Amino acid sequence: MALPRHFILSLIFFMGYSQVACSQTQDETGESSVQSEEAVLPSIGDADDAPELGVNPDNMNGEKLAALVQQLDEEAVVNGNSVIFKITERELMMVYDSGANRMRIISPIIPVAALPEGMMERMLQANYDAVLDARYAVANDLVWSVFIHPLSSLTEDDFISALAQTVTAAETFGSSFTSGAVVFGGGDSSGIHEGLLEELKKAQKARSDI
Questions:
Q1: In this structure, which CATH number among 3.40.50.150, 3.30.70.20, 3.40.50.720, 3.30.1460.10 belongs to the domain 5-9+43-208?
Q2: What is the mean pLDDT of residues 113-128?
Q3: Is 144 a residue whose pLDDT tops 80?
Q4: Is the confidence at residue 158, as pLDDT, over 80?
Q5: CA 16 to chain centroid
Q6: What is the SS3 assignment for 120?
Q7: CA-closest candidate to residue 64, choices 47, 40, 77, 87
């Protein structure tokens, strides 16, 4: 079920991941307090200045990830610590947090209300044996294809593979429910994944050579 582009963009910006995500901190008295994730998430321009938990500067950071996305989609929209872009006409968002040393890729699939009976259970089964590095998840009344990884240790090859898996998991939702990577017990979408992975690698190499 295709979601209108304007709806996806407005939803993603509303979520914030522009919405306030709360994290627990402690003040000087030792009491818990709530602060907004927006207050600690750096913009792409500030990514190199953010604490990176002792990793060396040659490791992956948000600015490098944003540049990789822009190599694959010249119309990618950078918004602070997130990038909205398209792969094979599918909407995706990459968001990172340098302070927490985390990144994620998300893509909306279908409203939860539109799921047929038994589909939620099938999603959970696929999370165990088929989608592997990617995952199906539910948030804000939508089903998403999601990839989550530590930021600093992510390689360019990891990122390209993550994109292919996230897109393939979204495209095969409702059929084979797979990310196209190695599947426990076999699967029928590895060809789709391999073809997309090869296209992404070629596109990334061609644009990086310009």
A1: 3.30.1460.10
A2: 93
A3: yes
A4: yes
A5: 13
A6: helix
A7: 47
End-to-end CA distance of the chain: 37
**Nearest-5° Cα angle at 103, 99 to 105:** 155
CA dihedral 37, 42, 47, 49 (to 10 degrees): -110
DSSP labels, 72-115: H-TT-EEETTEEEEEETTEEEEEEEETTTTEEEEEEEEEEGGGP
pLDDT of 113: 96
Q: What angle do CA 122, 1, 126 make, to 5 degrees?
A: 20
pLDDT in tens, 52-67: 433 444 699 999 999 9
114: pLDDT strictly greater than 90: yes
Place of tokens 């998430």: 41
Spatial separation of the C-alpha atoms in residues 180 and 190, rounded to whole Å: 4
Residue 129, classed as helix, strand or coil, is helix
Q: 3-class SS at 70?
A: helix
Nearest to 177 by CA among 105, 119, 126: 126
At residue 185, what are phi and psi to the nearest 5 degrees?
85, 10
pLDDT of the residue at 202? 73
Residue showing tokens 């040659």: 58
